[in-house]
Amino acid sequence: MRSLVIIVLGLFCTNLYAQQNISVPQMVETQCMGCHSDSITNAPMISGQSMDFLEFELFNFRDYIREHEIMNQVMEDFSAQEVKEIAAYISSLPRFTAEVDEHPDADMTQGEKIFKVSCFQCHKKDTSGTGPLLHGQRTGYLENAIKSFQSTWYAPRPSRVNMRIYADMLTEQDIIDVSAYLNSVN
């Protein structure tokens, strides 16, 4: 069943921009924001992210450096100029923030402490950090993202080196705590 859903999404998520010659705003609205808005729990909210970060990630998906079944298919036909236009547009959008998730097992004080010791240097509350904006993302997305740094390794992605150092120090409870804290602050 999962494969069927991925195939259907892959077919839907073909390069509408190139095929139909629609504008970047129309393409982003119809193709990107269905998954990357405040309504889907396992995809990051991308509006308002740093243009440099978005370009980096979109090129990684396009060039299959970062593997993701759907995102690789979505990005594979875009030219370098189109990727830059998409990143510029998405970064110009107002930032979405998720509703605060109820997480009774989380210790928000501990989560804040972990963030201030290990994360804040790269993940600012604005786009001045070297990492993506994490404040206001969904708890579940953040938990999965942190765990992915503990379980996967992508040598071409320099951010993986730094993130793995910090992520490997976190326990399951630490991940819950810092994710819930970040979800609660905008």
Brief summary:
This protein has two domains: 2-92, Cytochrome Bc1 Complex, Chain D, domain 2 (Orthogonal Bundle); 108-184, Cytochrome Bc1 Complex, Chain D, domain 2, CATH 1.10.760.10. It has helices at 2-12, 16-20, 24-32, 51-62, 69-75, 80-92, 108-119, 139-151, 159-167, 172-184. Helix content is 56%, strand content 0%.
What would you give as the CATH superfamily of the largest domain? Cytochrome c-like domain
Strand content: under 5%
Overall geometry: globular
Number of helices: 10
The topology string of helices and strands comes to HHHHHHHHHH
Count of the separate structural domains: 2
- Based on CA atoms alone, the radius of gyration comes out at 17 Å
- CATH-scheme architecture of the largest domain: Orthogonal Bundle
Helix content: 55-70%
Describe this structure in words.
This protein has 186 residues and is mainly α. The protein folds into two domains: 2-92, Cytochrome Bc1 Complex, Chain D, domain 2 (Orthogonal Bundle), CATH 1.10.760.10; 108-184, Cytochrome Bc1 Complex, Chain D, domain 2 (Orthogonal Bundle). Helix content is 56%, strand content 0%. The protein contains ten helices and no strands. The chain has helices spanning 2-12, 16-20, 24-32, 51-62, 69-75, 80-92, 108-119, 139-151, 159-167, 172-184. The longest helix is centred in the middle third of the chain and has 13 residues, at 80-92.
What is the strand and helix layout of this fold?
Elements: H1 2-12, H2 16-20, H3 24-32, H4 51-62, H5 69-75, H6 80-92, H7 108-119, H8 139-151, H9 159-167, H10 172-184
Helix pairs in contact: 4-5, 4-6, 7-10, 8-9, 8-10
